[in-house]
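Hi R.,

As promised, here are both runs. First protein below:
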Amino acid sequence: MPEGPSIVILKEAVQSFKGKSVLSAEGNSKVINPEMFSNQRVIDFKSWGKHFLICFETFSIRIHFMLFGTYRINESKASQARLSLKFDDGELNFYACSVQLIEGSLDEVYDWSADVMSELWDGEKAISKLRSQPETLVCDALLDQNVFAGVGNIIKNEVLFRIKLHPLNIIADLPDEVLKELVAEAVNYSYDFLRWKKEYVLKKHWLAHTKRICPRDNVPFAKHHLGKSKRRTFYCSLCQKFYGENYPEIKSLPDKGIRKAKRVKVKGS
């Protein structure tokens, strides 16, 4: 699933079509009528978190790539596109994605201050949202698109490792400075992600995501599907601190081949 920085890259890549009129449209999306694009001019391209937005005068199209969605610019795949837009000098094709129609102003639909890559991002507002859900696990909080639009599982794992925070902490247990660091690094890492992705070196910079050994402590990472979303979480039980009174009992969690989780005391707790 593309994370926010990847959607920003797509937005930048299609700017040549801004101001151009759609010559024809087709696709197997059941919620879009191809005729609605007839002679419609693209007003803008926007992104909000993991959403790619194609803006026309009276409506917008939201593309969400889900788990397996892809796109092609000025080329196509053998499979039928969910949505294909043809212009006089090129085409945009979207596959295996969710396509939705949004009528009216996007400002009424999206809170731009929640997008970690938006110029309107509001860190203080994010902190306030987090404090309003004190029992939420930090591994869930980082994936909450209403708080951190654009943050996905890669960013989640890397941010928690970067700031040495155990994924099973709850928001209420975090000191103020740690909560602020969590919010700040969600943005910082997203821009690092963007830069590394453009340079085709993103995976070379992963320190925790999909890794087996902690580069700080040289011990095996734990790997579990944690939180409400059950997304893969890689973490070090030594250097990623747990702030609660009792270290979480995780021996019953399923092991996926890295190691059996053990109940250990976290440094500094």
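And here is the second one, sequence first, then its structure tokens:
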Amino acid sequence: MSENYIEYQEERIYSISRVTILLLLTFLSFLISVDYVPNIQLVQLVLGGLMIIALLYHAFITYRPDDFIKLRRNILILFDFIILTFTINTLGENGIYLMPLYALIVMQGSVSYGLQYYISGGLFAIAGFIYLATSSSYWQAHYDVITAFGITTVLIPLFYIKTLIRLDRELEEVEEKIAVIDEVGDNISIPVVGVEERDAYKDEIKKLIRKKEPFTLLFISLQQIFEGKEDDHIADMVLQEVVDEINKVVDEDDLFARLSGNEFAIVSRKQRVFLRKYLQKLETAIISTHRVNDRSIRIEPNIGITLYPEDGQDEMILGKNADEAMHVAKEKQNVHYMFYRALTS
């Protein structure tokens, strides 16, 4: 994707939030009496049309995530302000209850899309306030209210810029971590038979992405437990036995590769409906007890799962998300695998 995947996920969240808010506003509009707001039917019609467009927009970014990214975001923000300004102008004095939505749109747009959209959103909002102050007799008489809300709309989102900067820093840290993992993965010294190398894993993912073919990426970290303690190093013999058992489970079309010492990856084309059963088989194959030097060692997996294209559009983002899900699984008790989507839902 031309924009990073985290921003794309934020766009999806923003889209879902819009649909939710519009559903709530539409429901509330039907509770308002015509005697209280004479033009409420017009407002309901506008909200209904806005709801249809919101659903179409969500479908577009789901199936065409790479197209017209900057243009579609700015158009969406502009369209929100046009509808909001029209509704406030129609409601007259009752429109003041919708004034805070100006700040909400600017804030949500800047947090979800980036700092540049704070600028465009702020300009759109100011244009809306100017329109109200010059075209509506009611708001001309209450320009002080317009001014107060205008200042609030511009200032409140500034408090969220710190959040955007933090997200950028976190992404840089993740990229640095992945670079370190790549470097370590090139220096594997323990020989293991029956598993592909890291480069084969990367090539397979890139090939499937070029073909737009759905697949599942599993990051597997093997955990050695003995006498109530954990040890990162697993004996060569035990590691080979576990790899042999995993190979009995993986499908012929699956790619099973080693990333680093005790960390592996599976790229599977298995249909999603069979995925959980597949994971259960992997658990059964990996969870085992071995005897090494008269010591009983138990091996357990931590598995992080990401789905293409739902959870990422390139190899780096998919790997980062699978790694994050794998570490969350490790932190939880009696949980051996975790879907990345469960972390973001």
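A quick note on the second one: Residues 185-189 have pLDDT under 50 and may be disordered. Let me know what you think.

Best,
J.
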